[in-house]
Amino acid sequence: MTTPYLAWLEARLNAVRAVSTDALLIAVLVAAFLIVLLFVAWRKAARRARLTTQTVARLEGDLNVARSSLDEEVKWRIGAERFAAQPKRPAGH
């Protein structure tokens, strides 16, 4: 007595056995080519992601330097404006 699963499996194996070896070889070669193509695409995408992460980190460092320089410039200018805005006292008073 065979189970329905074994009958299904036997039918599929008989279908594969009926395929010519040339057709089976072509199918295997196409599958292997697609696997290699997907692997190369995955490696390229991983490399681009790594480069993008490195670029973002470098740009964040540049941004921090620019922000600190800008903050220092703003402090300097505000200080200069406050000094220039002070009323001038006569020399005798």
Detailed description of the structure:
It is built from two helices and no strands. With 93 residues, it is an all-alpha fold. The mean pLDDT is 90.
| Helix fraction bin | over 70%
**How do the helices and strands follow one another from N- to C-terminus?**
HH
Count of strand segments? 0
Uncertain segments are: none
The radius of gyration over CA amounts to 37 Å
Strand content: under 5%
Specify the overall morphology: rod-shaped
Sheet with the most strands, sense and barrel status = none
Helix-strand makeup class = mainly alpha
The number of distinct helices, counting runs of at least 4 residues, comes to 2
Quick check: average pLDDT?
90
State the end-to-end CA separation.
Answer: 120 Å
Can you give me a brief rundown of this structure?
The chain is mainly α and 93 residues long. It has helices spanning 4-18, 21-85.
Primary descriptors:
93 residues, mainly alpha
Fold topology:
Blueprint: H1 4-18, H2 21-85
